[in-house]
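note to self: dont lose this again. the chain is below, predicted strucutre after it. 244 aa total, dont forget to put it in the shared folder this time
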Amino acid sequence: MNLRSIIVEDEETSRDILRNYLNKYCPNVEILGEASNVDEALVLIRSNDLDLVFLDVEMPFGNAFDLLDKVGDVDFETIFVTAYNHYAIEALNAHASYYLMKPISIDDLIKAVDYVSDIKSKEDALQNQVLIPKTTTVNGKITIPQQDGFEVLETSDILYCKADDNYTEIFLNNNKKKLVSKTLKYFEEALINSGFARVHKSYLVNVNEVTKYLKGKGGSVMLSNGKQIMVSASKKANLLAYFK
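---
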C-alpha cells in the first residue's frame, strides 16, 4: 500500500539522502513535504492526512518529543532517524514504530517501511470490525499469591492486567479486581501461551476479549466490557498478528 509521508530533518544533506533512498528503494512511500524544524513539521502534519512521519530527534527550537506532544492524538506511524542511540527508550515510550540509526542502512530502511506497510494494511482491514482472534478459547488456570496462601483463577475470566509499579491489577469479567505483588512482566511470561498479548508497557490483554481495533496514536483496542486500552506502536504488530 502507498504511505503518505513527510520527512522532518533539520540537516539538508540528511533530507536529501533519505528522500533519494525512499524514491529509489521504497516506491510505495509518497513524500508530501519536508520540514526542518518543529513549527514547519506541525504545519505539514495538521494540513495532511499522513500514514508515516520520518522524524529526526534533535532539531532547532525543540526536538522530536516536543513535536509529538504538540501534535496530540493522530493516526500516523513514526520512524525515528537519528545519530544518537540513547534516545531509543524515549522513542519507544513515544510509540515509535521503528528506530533507524544514521548513517541510514538501505536494508534497515526497507525493513522499517515494510513493517509500517504491514501494520497499516492490517489496521485498515480490522478498523471498526468485530474481531475474531485466531487463537482457540483460553483455557487453564493461574495462581496468584496471597498473604495466607494463593488463589486460583481461570485464565478465561481475566479481561486484562494493568501494571502498578511492582504490583499488577488483574481485572476479571465479573467486574472484580485483584491486586497482586508481581510485576506485569511476570504475568506476561506466565500467560504467553494462553492468548494474552502485551499491548502497552502498562497493559496485558486477553485477545479473546478484544472486540474492536481503533486507529489513533498507536491505536487502541476495545474490550468486551467496553474498556478502551491504548496500544503502543512497538506492540501493535504483535497484537494484530492474533487476528485475520
